[in-house]
Design brief:
Rossmann fold; seven-stranded mixed β-sheet
Amino acid sequence: MVESAKVENPFFARVWPVVAAHEAESVRALRRENLAGLSGRVLEIGAGSGTNFAYYPDTVTQVVAVEPEPRLVAKARAAAAAAPIPVEVTSVAVEEFSDQDAFDVVVCSLVLCSVHDQVAVLRRLRELLRPGGELRFLEHIASGGGRGRLQRLADATIWPRMLGNCHTHRHTERAIVDAGFEIVESRHEWTLPAWAPLPVSELALGRARRK
């Protein structure tokens, strides 16, 4: 059973909409690529302020977006009202979310770094997908060398406390496989120069299939 906890990140909820509104074009391009070619019914977890909503193609029939941080829900619902496709925003945490119908796709964008148990959450997402359904992911991942050491230091100190439980040194692709998915394709992208002293420069972009 996946443990759930009330999500309260007031500082992150104030900061994130500003960060998302000024997101680098390189990250926006990766968001668009992560959503390209989708169709059918989509579950998006950790929707934040609804940054992804404008990028969904019109072949998507519905997006159900999960955002448990109460301060972000209102912003996500405002973004949903302006989205080009139908978007329903729910404040139920993914650990507690259920639906009568299976989803064709699950979308994860910069969220698996912040869940308490990656494998458990991913297993729950697998259950919500139809057989053969797809997981699309754009996620921070563990780097090697000096960047990896910086990530471990950040994760052990103030970074998760200030930034919505974000843990930068996570082997997310391994967790996806451990949860019962088959990774179809994945590549790593750097969104900041290698010298930039931030732990969240390296992202994995890919798709996986429910076995």
